[in-house]
Automatic annotation (TrEMBL):
<keyword id="KW-0812">Transmembrane</keyword>
<keyword id="KW-1133">Transmembrane helix</keyword>
<dbReference type="GO" id="GO:0055038">
    <property type="term" value="C:recycling endosome membrane"/>
</dbReference>
<feature type="region of interest" description="Disordered">
    <location>
        <begin position="1"/>
        <end position="30"/>
    </location>
</feature>
<feature type="transmembrane region" description="Helical">
    <location>
        <begin position="98"/>
        <end position="116"/>
    </location>
</feature>
<feature type="compositionally biased region" description="Polar residues">
    <location>
        <begin position="1"/>
        <end position="13"/>
    </location>
</feature>
<dbReference type="Pfam" id="PF04144">
    <property type="entry name" value="SCAMP"/>
</dbReference>
<feature type="transmembrane region" description="Helical">
    <location>
        <begin position="198"/>
        <end position="220"/>
    </location>
</feature>
<dbReference type="InterPro" id="IPR007273">
    <property type="entry name" value="SCAMP"/>
</dbReference>
<dbReference type="GO" id="GO:0015031">
    <property type="term" value="P:protein transport"/>
</dbReference>
<protein>
    <recommendedName>
        <fullName>Scamp-domain-containing protein</fullName>
    </recommendedName>
</protein>
<feature type="transmembrane region" description="Helical">
    <location>
        <begin position="128"/>
        <end position="147"/>
    </location>
</feature>
<dbReference type="GO" id="GO:0032588">
    <property type="term" value="C:trans-Golgi network membrane"/>
</dbReference>
<keyword id="KW-0472">Membrane</keyword>
<feature type="transmembrane region" description="Helical">
    <location>
        <begin position="159"/>
        <end position="178"/>
    </location>
</feature>
Length: 262
């Protein structure tokens, strides 16, 4: 008799095994396509969940009056800690500080223009009146047209907010540059007006010091706005926000969802 234990051909199971006959061979291999689809679905569900939470929170705020800004007359709810995703909080915090710097610069610019009027280097009461008008008008419009849109943009990640910021933020950069120059009769205590006050002497020296501070404020405001504009533009493009997408969102949800929020 032949001893099977000594026959090398007695058992060929291990050699003849077909890997295709065992489904676990494929199940153990990662399917990158399915994994990516699941990741995209999870992200979409997370965005939908966040939007629902924000909508519910906004409705609660509207109903219960949790508006907290501005402190002296609350009109909107503003909380970077609660409404902005953690990764974006430093940028939005810096944007808010830039807006506060704008308010401070407007006030210093107004006082410097008053000194320019007193010293006779300004264009009579035109610089004085325009500089006073700038404080409430530019202060409010800047909040509504570029700060609040980008705040909402990072909160809800919707393209229409980004494009509102891109439009009005660009105008703000130009306005800051214009104010830094200090052309007489424009309500600006920028560089030209500041030099005129220093040359005039007397009361103009005090105005020149304030004008220097205002000029520095406008320069920082302009370059700071340009720096953040570049960062936000890159973020918006990386997130897939486009003008067509913004138009689609506006057509789907209507203007009220964006301009009447809060």
């Amino acid at each position: 008799m032949t001893d099977l234990s000594e026959n090398p051909f007695a058992s060929t199971h291990s050699l003849d095994k077909n890997p295709f006959d065992d489904p676990t061979e494929f199940q153990s291999q990662p399917n990158h396509y399915d994994a990516r689809m699941q990741d995209l679905q999870h992200r979409e569900q997370d965005l939908q969940r966040r939007e629902q939470e924000l909508t519910q929170r906004a409705e609660y705020i509207r109903t219960h009056g949790r508006n907290n800004f501005p402190p002296f007359y609350p009109l909107v709810y503003h909380s970077i800690q609660e409404e902005i995703p953690e990764a974006s909080r430093p940028l939005i915090t810096d944007m808010f500080r830039l807006w506060l710097l704008l308010l401070a610069t407007l006030v210093v610019n107004m006082v410097a223009s008053i000194f320019a009027t007193i010293s006779g280097t300004g264009d009579g009461f035109r610089d004085f009146g325009v500089s006073i008008m700038y404080v409430p008008v530019i202060g409010i419009l800047s909040f509504l047209t570029w700060y609040r849109p980008i705040y909402n943009g990072y909160m809800k990640e919707q393209a229409v907010y980004y494009y509102l910021y891109f439009f009005f933020g660009g105008w703000h950069i130009l306005f800051s540059s214009y104010m830094a120059i200090g052309i007489p009769s424009t309500g600006s205590a920028g560089i030209i007006q500041t030099v005129r006050m220093y040359i005039h002497g007397g009361v103009g020296i005090a105005g020149g010091v304030l004008g220097t501070i205002a000029s520095a404020g406008w320069v920082v405001e302009g370059f700071g706005s340009l720096w953040f504009y570049r960062l936000i533009w890159a973020h918006g493009k990386a997130a897939g926000h486009s003008l067509e997408k913004a138009k689609g969102e506006l057509a789907t949800k209507g203007a009220k969802a964006y301009f009447m929020r809060g």
